[in-house]
Amino acid sequence: MILIHAYASALRTGLPNPKTYPYWVELLTLLAEPNVIQIGVTGDTPLVKDFRALLPLKEIRKLVEHCKYWIAIDSFLPHLAHHVPKPGVTLWSVSDPSRFGYPENLNLLRDPKYLRPKQYRIWEEQSYDPEAFLSAYDVAARICAWRSS
Q: What is the reported pLDDT for 94?
């Protein structure tokens, strides 16, 4: 089983969160994993049949412990998984993985040119740019190489 956390918290402005990966459907198709569990909150778009909203932290931790690996945007999940410990994949866009990521994970950043100049500012000041992310094909290829190493 793999675990995914697909969406970042909604911004107070109502605009899309710049951390939200735009190519989930394509990525999941390319990975062709038979057993995927998605965690999130009420209102998130389910990407797989097994979508679990508003789980207690204890249950999320159990899922992390038992998954083959996880894939998440820059969110709470990589931080929790670091303490389990369970390596996984973090999809970065405008946050700097050298500041906020963990070395045991596959940290996928398309290009440093997309990083926010002021990493600690509020998210409402950052616009959403799907071009800041790696394509689903590139992510799938890197995950396959990482899994086979």
A: 95
Q: Contact at 8 Å (CB) between 27 and 60? A: no
Alpha helices in 32-124, H assignment, sequence order = 57-66, 76-83, 97-100
Q: Which pLDDT belongs to residue 61?
A: 98
pLDDT of residue 10: 80
pLDDT in tens, 74-108: 999 999 999 999 999 999 999 999 999 999 999 99
Cα within 13 Å of Cα(19), Cβ side? 22
Q: What kind and span of H or E run contains 148?
A: helix 136-148
Instruction: With a cut of 70, list the residues of the chain below it in pLDDT.
Output: none
Q: Locate the domains of the chain by residue range.
A: 2-148
Instruction: Give the residue among 57, 114, 53 at the shortest CA–CA distance from 81.
Output: 57
Question: How far apart are alpha carbons 100 and 52 in whole angstroms?
Answer: 26
2-148 folds as Rossmann fold (3.40.50)
Show Cβ contacts of residue 60 under 8 Å, excluding neighbours closer than 6 positions: 39, 77, 80
In 3D space, the residue among 119, 145, 147, 144 whose CA is nearest the CA of residue 19 turns out to be 119
